Amino acid sequence: MHLWVCICIFLFVHSQRLLANKTVLNDSLYTEEYIRGTYIAEPKRALQLLDEAENRKTMPLRIVNELRSLSYRSLYMNKLAYLYARKAYLLDSVSQRAPEHMLKMTVYLAELTNLMSKHSESMKYALSGIRQARELQDREAEFRLLFCIGENNWALSAKDKAYDYFNRTIEMLRGSKDMREMMLLSYYYGAEMGYLMTDSRIEEALKLALEREKLLKRIEKLPHVPEGYTDSQYSYLYAKLAYICQVEKKYKQAEEYYQQYLATKDSHTPDGKINSVPYLTLSGQYEKVIENCQDFKNLMRTQQDTLNIQYLRILKKEVQGYLGMQNYKAAADLRETILEITDSINNKDKANAALELNAMYDASEKEEHIAEQASQLKIRNISLIFLTFVVLLALFMLWRMWRFSNIVRYKNKVLARFVNEKLAQRDRDERNQLLPEEEINKIIPILSDIEPTVESLEEIEDLPDETDKVSGEEEENQKIFQELNRIVVQDRLYLSPELSREDLAQIVHLNNARFARMIKECTGTNFNGYINELRINYAIKLLKMHPNYTIRAIADEAGFNSTPILYNLFKKKTGMTPYEFKKTQETL
Questions:
Q1: How far is Cα 488 from Cα 283, in angstroms, rounded to an integer?
Q2: Model confidence pLDDT, tens digit, residues 487-541
Q3: Is the pTM of this model over 0.85?
Q4: How far apart are CA 33 and CA 54, in angstroms?
């Protein structure tokens, strides 16, 4: 009997240990370390793990958003990568507890905005990040931001300045024995080579290519080099060397480099195939050019969320291939596509317009069919009378709907003009009043007179009972609020949905009661009213600047937790919904 009891206890303890090990193993899937090692090879799976990690709260939200940004970047979804990098950046800005992570997010935002061709915004992040990098003595961040500034200058046609930044970054990295810095240097060699080749500076590109080859041989000898790293680096390098030798008419050497390129595993992937396109074009292998471009385009179509300069470059290379094959029709079609993308033609609007035309055609066919039926049923008086009644009723309802729609449209136009005039007047006042060092894109809330803000019970309890205010405290409150408002507006803290009254009170080192009193004195409303006014004003500008954004996207970008909240506050302050304002703005 005792033996059976001991066996049962042993089996129970063993099963509990197995269950515990299984739980630990499962939880280990939702750690930062595991997902960082997964997102490059399996970005979609990493996104699923991050959703579960957020639910389980196994890592801070700012880390979750950072890893989401990296995963979307691996999928070429730059807009979503930017959105989550921005969320992580705002969380760091509010907490002010992780300056190293905030610097990392600044680097991400500078690089992503450059990829999205938002060069002015990218320069802003880069210049801000360099100051942080030097304060924190983060060499890698400084290198990446300096090179990013060079890329922005190159895109803006300031080529000499761009190459100064490229060479300055490379000189700072040259000679380093740190593996990560050596890998970064290899990347910058390749990037500058690409720019030099685009600018037909072939001799300089060749010099960099040979230096990069020596560097890669040094990296190969280092321990713990990531698997597949040197293969992809050699793939790019030999493809470019083949092109350079072909330009210099060293055909035998060019073919040797091309065969070295084909010997790499990366040369058989869509990303790797695109590296050989310049050489294939120059050597007259046009069918291979088309094939390689098609593979890469298929990859981007399935994963990418935005058409950017990279996609346009692939199209241009494909045009060269079709021209080489004397397929002028295909080349002309592709050029037309390039012009459409460059001119920012909205494909969604085209599709909607096509749908509207189809609907009109269908309605016309239905009316003809009804008329035909009516002519056939003239002999049946009862049916004809009934049909006439229905038609008259429908026309009456349509007239009523048309009349109501016109009234609503007119009202919305008046309200939209009023909002636009208020915004314009506020912008003129700001230009006359702002100090020179303040940011140009500063947003000042437009306090609407339509309906006063009702304070919450919590904030009413926080307010003191004194009726007389000390003038000295009021003056101090004004100064504190001006500085707080500058921080909130300049850093766009109000765009964070998690922003709370306690967060801002900590920034200015005030207790809740004093903070509530200061907000009431300086804005005439409470904390929620103050922040929501900033968000509504920002939402109005987004609706005007980006008419193709969905209302949900506007709500997320403006810092609202949900679309209904935006609708309610927007309707309360402007007299119409965001959708009505968006549609009305298109007609003004």
A1: 57
A2: 888 888 888 888 888 888 888 888 888 888 888 888 888 988 889 988 998 888 8
A3: no
A4: 15
> Measured between alpha carbons, how far is 257 from 255 in angstroms, rounded to an integer?
5
User: Which residue from 215, 222, 147, 229 is spatially nearest to 175, judged by alpha carbons?
Assistant: 215
How far apart CA 437 and CA 17 sit, in angstroms, is 63
Classified as helix, coil or strand, 557 is: helix
- Three-class DSSP labels, 315-363: HHHHHHHHHHCCCHHHHHHHHHHHHHHHCCCCHHHHHHHHHHHHHHHHH
> Angle, nearest 10°, between helix axes 527-545 and 551-558?
130
Give 133-167 pLDDT, tens digit per residue: 999 999 999 999 999 999 999 999 999 999 999 99
| Cβ atoms of 489 and 541 closer than 8 Å | no
Query: In whole angstroms, what is the distance from residue 56 CA to residue 139 CA?
Result: 35
Query: Which of 114, 102, 212 has its CA nearest to residue 154?
Result: 114
Report d(CA 75, CA 196) in Å as an integer.
28
Give the separation between CA 267 and CA 235, rounded to whole angstroms: 6
Is the CB of residue 462 less than 8 Å from the CB of residue 513? yes
Cβ contact 114:151 at 8 Å: yes
SS3 content of the chain, % helix, strand, coil (to 5): 80, 0, 20
Give the model's pLDDT for residue 210: 92
Measured CA to CA, the distance from residue 109 to residue 65 in angstroms comes to: 13
Residue 184 burial (10 A CB sphere; 0-12, 13-18, 19+) = buried
Indicate left, alpha or beta for 584 from its phi (over 0: left) and psi (-120 to 50: alpha): alpha
Q: Cα 240 from chain centroid?
A: 31
List the alpha helices (DSSP H) in 41-115: 43-56, 61-74, 78-95, 99-115
Q: How far apart are CA 447 and CA 529, in angstroms?
A: 9
Residue 125's closest CA among 155, 105, 139?
A: 105
Q: Both tokens of residue 16?
A: 């509990």
Tokens standing for residue 487: 């921080």
Separation of alpha carbons 434 and 443, rounded Å: 11
- Show the tokens assigned to 316: 């241009």
The token duo for 126 is: 């880069």
Q: What contacts 562, CB < 8 A, 6 or more positions away?
A: 555
| Closest-CA residue to 560 (of 529, 518, 520, 532) | 532
